[in-house]
Design a protein that fits this description.
With about 150 residues, the chain is mostly beta strands. About 5% of the residues lie in helices and about 30% in strands. It is built from two helices and nine strands; from the N terminus they run βαββββββαββ. Strands 1, 3, 4, 6, 7 and 8 form a six-stranded antiparallel sheet that branches. A three-stranded mixed sheet has the order 5-2-9, with no helix packed on it.
């Protein structure tokens, strides 16, 4: 099912929660918990680098706790990829720490394509320090006091 690009908050079904297990994060129409800031509230730039230009959709999910990580996104965005290799947005009202997980569905089939052993064949990335396997809350959490940069691999 195709949904319009929008900011959303929604529980992700367990089958769709495994960003590195064969599916993209599921998003649906619902309001996000992070709201535009009243004057004086801090905002954080979220930047994704290394996009495959002009192909598919970018899915960005922000999580605010270990319990919610890869299950219940604080903010989830689906964006059609344009002509730039970098995407950025500024979000306000975020908690002090978040973890960001990003996938690019290059072929537009709604799934993160993987090889026979489950390694992604489409671009993906997470905030924080890199890991050899799927990201964890501990490896992906970052402070929102500085821009958050995710580089797709």
């Amino acid at each position: 099912m195709r949904r319009p690009a929008s900011a959303t908050r929604r529980s992700v079904a367990p089958a769709a929660a495994g960003v590195l297990a064969g599916t993209l994060l599921a998003v649906g129409p619902a309001p996000t918990r992070a709201q535009p800031a009243p004057s004086g509230e801090a905002c954080t730039e979220i930047r994704v680098e290394g996009l495959t230009v002009g192909r598919g959709r970018l899915q960005v999910a922000l999580f605010d706790s270990e319990a919610a990580f890869r299950k219940d996104a604080l903010v989830a965005l689906t964006i059609r990829v344009g002509s730039a290799s970098t995407w950025r947005s500024t979000l306000c009202g975020l908690p002090a720490e978040v973890a960001v997980v990003v996938t690019q569905d290059v072929d537009g089939d709604g799934e993160l394509d993987t090889n026979v052993v489950g390694i992604p064949r489409e671009p993906w990335g997470a905030s924080g320090r890199g890991t050899l396997g799927p990201p964890s809350w501990k490896s992906a959490r970052v402070a929102t006091t500085a821009p958050v940069v995710v580089t797709l691999r």
